[in-house]
Amino acid sequence: MVLFLGVSVLSGALAAGLAVPFAGLAGFTTEKTSATLQDLPQQFDEVPLKQKSTILAADGTVIATLAEQNRVPVKLKDVAPIMQKAIVAIEDDRFYEHGALDLKGTLRALLQNQSSGGIQQGGSSITQQYVKVSLVEKAKTPEEVAAATADTYQRKVAELRYAIAVEKQYSKNEILEKYLNLANFGDGAWGIQAAAQHYFSVDAKNLTLPQAAMLAGLVKNPTGYDPTNNAKRAKERRDVVIRRMLQLNVISVAQANSALKTPVIDPNKVRPNKLGCANGPYPFYCEYVVGELENNPTFGKTKTDRSNYIKTAGLTIKTSLDPKIQADAQRSIDTHSKPTDDAIAAITIVEPGTGLVKAMAQSRQYGSKRGQTAYNYNAPKTYQGGYGGFQNGSTMKAFTIAAAIQAGIPLNYKINSPSPLDMGGMKYTTCDGPRKIPEGYSPKNSTHNVPDPTMIQAAQKSTNTYFLQLSLRVGLCPIAKLAGDLGMYNAQNLQPLQQVASMTLGVDYVTPLQLANAYAAFAARGMYCSPWVVTSVKDSAGKAVNLPGANCKQVLAQGVADGVNAVLHQVMEPDGTGGKLKFGNSDLAGKTGTINQAKAVWYAGYSTKLAAAATVADASLPYSELEGQTLNGKQINDASGSGTAGPIWEAAMKAALQGYPTTHFVAPSDKTQRGDVTDLPFVNGMSPQDASNKLKQMGFQVTIASGTVNSEETAGTVAYTDPRQRDGAPAGSLVTIYISNGSKKNQPSSTNTPKPPKTTTTINPNCPPWNPKYPNCGGGGGGGGRGHG
In what order do the strands lie in the sheet with 53-56? Predict the structure, then answer.
C-alpha cells in the first residue's frame, strides 16, 4: 500500500506538473528536477538514424560496408506483423492503450520487482524507450552517454517529458517503426532489418514467430541474450516472450508449442557483420577510397567529421575498381610472388584519358600475421596505410624524353655515350639556378649500345650516360616541372622531386599508382588525369551527391606525347630491354627501371586503353639489394626491371586487355622524328670535292672524315654522310663526308672510322643545341652537335 501510494502520488505529480505548466512539481521532487523540466523543450528533435554506407565496384558488387552501427531502416509495413506483436507483448503490452506514461504498467513492474527483490520487469513504455535510445544516439561524448543512461529520477522525468512530446508529434505506429529501426539487437545488428538478416538471413517482413520472439527478447539485454554467444540463455529469454504472447492471446497454444520446440538459431544462417575495409575483398583499394572521401570537404569540415559522416550517412559509393581487371592483376602477382617472400610485389592499373584506377594488387595480404601487412604498397604515404613508394630508377627517363621532345630535340638526336663517363665538374641548371656536378661522378651503362645512340636507341638499351647528358642539355627545371604536372612527387612527404644531376636515373620515392597514372598521360596523347576512384555517391534517399568527375588537363602537346610513345614503343621491340614482354597486336610502350644496388626494380608500360606500373622491392628496413632475397619462394639471382618486375606487368596487362580492340599509337610528325631539318642531297658515289661543293651550295657546313670506311661505293668516292641523306639535317649544320675504301661491305670499319672528339661543353637549356644558328648551345661540338652525333 505504501508503494502504491508513493507511485500514485509521484505519477499524479508528474502528470499535473507536465500538464499544468510544471506547477507544484517542486513540492514532490527536488528543485533540480523542477529546473530540468522547466528547461526542456516542448518538441522532441528526432535523432538521425546512423546508417551503414556501402562501397561498390564499378559493376555494382560490394567492396565494403562502412558503419558505426550495422543498420538498414525499413518501414513498419515491411516488418512482419508477428514481430510487431512480439515486441509490444514483451516490452509494452498496453502500448496502443496508454499515453507516454503507462501508470498501470509502471506500478505492476514496481510491485513485481519489489516482491522478487530484483529487477524483473521494466516500467518504461516503448515511447520512453525510444526516447532513451535516441538520447544515447545523440550523445557525442562519454559524459553525454552517461547522462542519457543515468539511473536518476531527474533523467526519468526528463525522459518522460520528451516522451509526451513524441506522443504529440507521431502516431503509435510511427513510434513503433522508429523504435524498431533504432533498437540494438546485439552482435553488431542495429534495427530490425539488420537483425533479421544477421541472425536468420531473412528480411524483417519474413520473420517467423520463434524468430520474432527471439529478437523481441534481445532488446532488454542485447549482449546477455545474444544467441551467438549463449544459445541456451537466448532460448530461455525467447521462450519467455512466447509464453507472454500466449498469455496475452496474441498466439494460440499450438503456435506456442511449435515455436518453443524450434531451435533458437541455425548457425549456418548467421551472416557475419563484416564491417569496414579490412573485412572486404579489396581492403587496400577500399582504404584508398576512404582516404579520398575523408579528404573531400563535401563530407564535412574536418577529417573527423568526414570520417563520422561517411560511416553513418547511409551513402552508396561507387568506385572505378574493375573486378575482372583486379582479378587479373592479383592473379599475376600471385603467379610471380608469394606473401612470405622477402621482397614485395605490387601493381596498379589505370585507364588513360580518365584517370580511373581499375586495379591495385600486391603480394602481401591485409593483416598482422606473417606474410600480411597493413601497408598499401601502391599508395602514397599521405593515405591511410600508404607505404610511400620506392625510388623509380630509369622509368624516370620517360620524363626526360618528354621534356627533350617538348624542347624540340628530335628522336634521332645523337650523343656520344661512353661507359663510364666522367661528369665531374659539369654544370647544369635547375629551377633555382646553376649547379655543378661534384668531382668523381663517373656513371656507367648497364647495357651495351652503339657509341653514338639516338634517343630511340638510348631508350631501347636504357643508356644512362646518354640520358644524363640529355637531361643536362634540356635542363632539370623543365623535366621537374613536367614530371610534377604528371603527378610525380615524393610520395613520402608530397614535396617536388629533387633536381639533382642523376634525376633522370631515378629520384626520391614514387608509387606504382603515380607512375601508372603518369605514363597513362603519354597513352592519352598528353592528357593527364588525376587518379579517380570515387565515381559517384548517393545519399540515403538515393539522391546524387555533387562531386567532380574526371580531373583532366592537357599537359603535353599531342605531338610531344606521340614522340614519347614512338620512343617507348621501340623499348618493347626486339632490340629493346622490354622486347620479351611484348604481346598481342596492339601497340605497346614501356620502360624498365632499376635503382642503385637493385633495391627496387620496375616495369611501367601501356597501350592506348590501359596503363600499369609494376614493382618488386625490398620493403623492410634496412633496405638491401634484391639479389639473394626471395621472390615466388626462390632466391633472386639477378634483379632487373625487365626480368623481375616485367613478367608481372606482362601477365596482368595481357589478361586485362583481353576483350579490348586492337589499337595503335599515332605516329609522330616528321619534325618530331628528325627535328627542324631540310633534305640532304644524295651524294653517295660522288667525288668528295663535288659532294662538298654541292652541300655547301645548299648552305651546309662540310668536313671530310680522315681515313676510309667499308662501302659498296667505288674506292675514293663518298660512302655516306652523317647525318644520313634519309635523315636530313638542320639548315646550316655540319655534315661529315665519309670516304669509301671500295670493300663492298655495308658496315663501317671499326678500325678506320674516325672517333668524334669528346666534349664537355655546358649547354644552355634555353636554346636548341642541335641548331648551328646558336653557337653557344654547342651545336658544333661532338657531344651535342648533330654533325658528330
Answer: 62-66, 53-56, 316-319, 534-538
* Residue at grid coordinates 516488418: 79
What are the backbone angles phi and psi of residue 704, rounded to the nearest 5°? -110, 120
**Contact in structure between 703 and 736 (CB atoms under 8 Å):** yes
Q: What is the largest CA-CA distance in the chain?
A: 136
In 10 A of CB 487, how many CB atoms?
22
For every residue of 462-477, which 3-state class applies, written as one string? CCHHHHHHHHHHHCHH
Q: Picking from 99-113, 143-157, 325-339, which range would have the lowest pLDDT averaged per residue?
A: 99-113
Asked if 737 and 688 count as a contact pair (C-beta separation under 8 A), the reply is: yes
Task: Quote the CA–CA distance of 724 and 748 in Å, as a whole number.
Answer: 13
Q: Is the peptide bond before 420 cis (omega within 30 degrees of 0)?
A: yes
- CB of 275 closer than 8 Å to CB of 70: yes
The residue behind cell 672517333 is 755
Q: Which triple of cell numbers denotes residue 459? A: 631508350
What's the average model confidence in pLDDT over 562-577? 96
3 state DSSP class of 511: coil
Report phi then psi at 357, rounded to 5.
-85, 105
d(Cα 615, Cα 2) in Å, to the nearest integer? 81
Residue 754's pLDDT band, with cuts at 50, 70 and 90, is: very low
**Whole-angstrom distance, CA of residue 731 vs CA of residue 9:** 111
Q: How far apart are CA 734 and CA 432, in angstroms?
A: 34
As a whole number of angstroms, the distance between CA 262 and CA 207 comes to 14
Q: Residue 452: is its pLDDT beyond 90?
A: no
Residue in the block written with cell 549463449: 230
Phi-psi region of 371 (alpha: psi -120 to 50; beta: other; left: phi over 0): left
Q: What is d(CA 649, CA 645) in angstroms, rounded to the nearest whole number?
A: 7
Domains of the chain as residue ranges with CATH:
1-35 (no CATH), 72-269 (1.10.3810.10), 393-656 (3.40.710.10), 677-788 (3.30.10.20)
Reported as type and span, the H/E element at residue 348 is strand 344-350
pLDDT score recorded for residue 38: 54
The per-residue pLDDT for range 356-411, each reduced to its tens digit, is 999 999 999 999 888 899 999 999 998 888 999 999 999 999 999 999 999 999 99
Cell numbers standing for residue 349: 592499373
Closest among 643, 654, 658 to 336, alpha carbons compared: 643
CA distances to 468, 536, 778 from 762, rounded to whole Å, are 13, 52, 8
Predicted pLDDT at 17: 39
Residue 567 to residue 573: CA distance in whole angstroms:
10
Count of alpha carbons within 13 angstroms of residue 519, beta-carbon side: 37
Q: Is 682 helix (H, G, I), strand (E, B) or coil?
A: coil
pLDDT confidence band for 145 (50 / 70 / 90): confident
CA atoms within 13 A on the CB side of 128: 23
Q: Which three cell numbers stand for residue 698?
A: 645548299
Strands, DSSP E only, in 571-656? 589-594, 600-606, 611-617, 630-631, 634-635
